[in-house]
Design goal:
Layout: E1 4-5, E2 32-39, E3 42-50, H1 61-65, E4 68-70, E5 73-77, E6 83-86, H2 88-101, H3 109-122, E7 134-143, E8 156-165, E9 177-182, H4 199-213, E10 219-223, E11 230-233, E12 236-242, E13 247-250, H5 260-270, E14 276-279, H6 283-292, E15 295-302, E16 306-315, E17 320-322, H7 330-343, E18 354-356
Parallel strand pairs: 1-3, 9-10, 9-16, 13-14
Antiparallel strand pairs: 2-3, 2-8, 4-7, 5-6, 5-7, 6-18, 7-8, 10-11, 11-12, 12-13, 12-15, 15-16, 16-17
Helix pairs in contact: 2-3
């Protein structure tokens, strides 16, 4: 890929703030971003330019018909001072999956990978080394064609921006969250865009999220459209842990977005490193096992939070279920330590899971 560079003068470049406090999640931006355009059936003009606004026509189709997709990944500094992407190939693959579902153009995974690597190389001074921090990578694509006809657009922008970030939830991993199990709201239904990381799915979740917060909960645990089976949380895949230490993840279907950490957990299980399986989980069975103590831990797998322990569940009828003692469990803690060890290079990762950012 022949990338054009427009680099800010060093005197104009901002620097990573120095602070002893945890970095906010998703608020900081680095100095540059990667951009390329899709026109006449091809991706053109790949470039790294100063971070700034796009010029967009009022009739841009992303503003009217929601053709917009995104990804979220992380890069980390290892003890050798080099920066490594973690499982970014999974994100490249999933972005193309989302693009196919929304009738948007795919981008060769090698292009996506090189774009991220070259941008991070330019911005390597922005990669934090504080506990529970990372350089968050946000690739996204949106339709720019100026048209009011309901059809797939013919013009798009693909962009990658970077955000030095701390933990997703205030308090980080040590705080167990409270989930609302809702029968009123549904994240997605079979035959829709549930497996895609698209803007519309997240816009539709905002009302449910506010509904949960009004009831003292952090997020919603969604059920299938028939209110029978557990599916996923608004920002992560759900899991629970049984007495024998097995992580149980709801079976992936066409209304669940496959998170990279949950896929990684299943791959680690296939290597014999942890115990994990997938199954259809009936809500009634889940609640009975919580009450009896058969389920000893629970949480969520997602790139932003990595692993988010769940301490309790609230139902819309006012009933409450506590997981174990309501705190972070041993198996969850061990998995978090192992997984972050992989990300930080302190534990040997399976082949291909980490990619070093070259010094171009």
């Amino acid at each position: 890929m022949n990338i054009r560079y427009e680099i800010l003068d060093k005197s104009l470049q901002r620097k990573l703030p120095k602070t002893d406090k945890p970095l906010p999640f998703g608020q900081l931006r680095t100095n540059h971003m990667f951009v390329m355009n899709y026109k006449d059936g091809a991706w053109v003009d790949p470039r790294i330019v100063p971070y700034g606004p796009f010029e967009l026509m009022p009739g841009a189709m992303c503003l009217h018909y929601g053709q917009t997709i995104f990804e979220g990944a992380k890069a980390f500094i290892h003890d050798n001072g080099e920066i490594y992407l973690f499982r970014y190939d999974k994100n490249c693959n999933r972005l193309n999956h989302s693009a196919r579902n929304l009738c948007m153009p795919e981008i060769p995974e090698s292009f996506q990978m090189e774009a991220a690597l070259r941008l991070i190389d330019i911005e390597r001074d922005w990669c934090p080394d504080m506990p529970e921090s990372s350089l968050y990578i946000r690739p996204f694509m949106f339709a720019t064609q100026d048209s009011l006809g309901v059809k797939p657009a013919s013009e798009y922008i693909y962009c990658v921006m970077l955000s030095p970030a701390g933990p997703y939830y205030p308090g980080g991993f040590s705080r167990a969250v409270r989930l609302l199990i809702s029968k009123k709201y549904h994240r997605a239904v079979s035959g829709g865009t549930g497996t895609s990381k698209c803007g519309g799915n997240y816009a539709a979740s905002l009302q449910a999220q506010q509904y949960a917060k009004d009831r003292g909960c952090d997020q919603v645990l969604y059920l299938d459209a028939g209110n029978e089976f557990l599916e996923e949380v608004g920002t992560m895949n759900h899991y629970h842990v049984e007495k024998d230490g097995t992580f149980v993840i709801p079976t992936f279907n066409d209304s669940i977005l496959k998170s990279v950490p949950s896929q990684s957990a299943l791959e680690l299980a296939s290597l014999g490193i942890i115990k994990a399986r997938q199954e259809d989980i009936r809500l009634d069975d889940f609640l009975l096992k919580l009450k009896s103590g058969e389920i000893i831990e629970a949480g969520g797998f997602g790139t932003a939070a990595v692993v988010s322990p769940v301490g309790s569940y609230a139902l819309e009828d006012g009933s409450e279920y506590t997981v174990g003692n309501g705190e972070v469990g041993e198996h969850t803690r061990n998995f978090y330590a192992y997984y972050t060890g992989l990300q930080l290079g302190k534990t040997q990762a399976p082949e291909g899971w980490v990619v070093k950012v070259p010094r171009y």
